[in-house]
Amino acid sequence: MAEKQSTEPKKGGRKPKYDYTSQEFLDQIAAYAKNGFTDGEIAATMGLCYQTFSEKKNEYPEIASTLAGARAQVNAMVRKTMLTLATGRVVRTYEYVREKCSRCMGHGKILDEQTGKRVNTCPECGGIGWIRSTDKQVVREQELPPSLNAINLWLTAHDEEWKKKMKGNDPTDLNKVEGIDIEVTYNKKEDLDLQQGMVKDET
């Protein structure tokens, strides 16, 4: 007579370390992915075996889609940065006008009435010696030329014609790519003088 199998659920077994579909878990792995972590590094950081993490990634579509979404955001930011480098950019820095503290005269300390030495922190500037005029902001701009390496990387990834032209050429020397005319802009005076001198030699 065959033994009757029990239909009751089995008891025991290890409790999962994480709720793999919880928003907390998904947010955590997304944060790691946005910081450039690989799947293996995410698993190790969270105390999981890589094989276990891979199995859960296949078992729960939410994990795979979360990782893909996070990495897509990073890729978009990197592409934007590379495009900015390839086309040149203007860097703006914001500074505030600083005025010398009138109480300590820029020393950061005030005189001790008894000893005559500068020992006490100036209450006006907090010991810095300068007071920032928050209503006087100075904007400085610096124009940076396009990066040839960024141009090469961008075109290699997105332009089939460029890939064809780059075959047999040194990808690190864009001035010697056959069939490509490149105009390089020099910002420094000495570079401009050098460029003009080379033109005179050719003529």
Descriptive notes:
The protein is flat and about 75 Å long. It is built from seven helices and four strands; from the N terminus they run H-H-H-H-E-E-E-E-H-H-H. It has two domains: 23-81; 89-202, no CATH class. The chain has helices at residues 23-34, 39-45, 50-59, 61-87, 148-158, 160-166, 189-202, and strands at 89-100, 109-111, 118-121, 130-144. Helix 3 (50-59) crosses helix 4 (61-87), helix 4 (61-87) crosses helix 5 (148-158) and helix 5 packs across helix 6 (160-166). It has a two-stranded antiparallel ribbon. Strands 2-3 form a two-stranded antiparallel sheet. The protein has 203 residues and is of the alpha+beta class.
For this entry, give a set of tags.
203 residues; flat; two-stranded antiparallel sheet; alpha+beta
List the helices and strands and how they pair.
Elements: H1 23-34, H2 39-45, H3 50-59, H4 61-87, E1 89-100, E2 109-111, E3 118-121, E4 130-144, H5 148-158, H6 160-166, H7 189-202
Antiparallel strand pairs: 1-4, 2-3
Strand-pairing-aware structural class: alpha+beta
Determine the N-to-C terminus distance: 107 Å
Q: Count of helical segments?
A: 7
Physical arrangement of strands within the biggest beta sheet:
1-4
> Kindly state the mean pLDDT as a whole number?
76
Listing every helix as H and every strand as E from the N terminus to the C terminus, the arrangement reads: HHHHEEEEHHH
Provide the domain count.
2
Rg, alpha carbons? 31 Å
Portion in helices: 40-55%
Oligomer state of the chains in this structure: single chain
Q: Note poorly predicted spans.
A: 184-188
Q: Give a count of the beta strands, DSSP E runs of length 2 or more.
A: 4
Shape verdict? flat
Main β-sheet, in a few words?
Answer: 2 strands, antiparallel
The percent range for strand residues is 15-25%
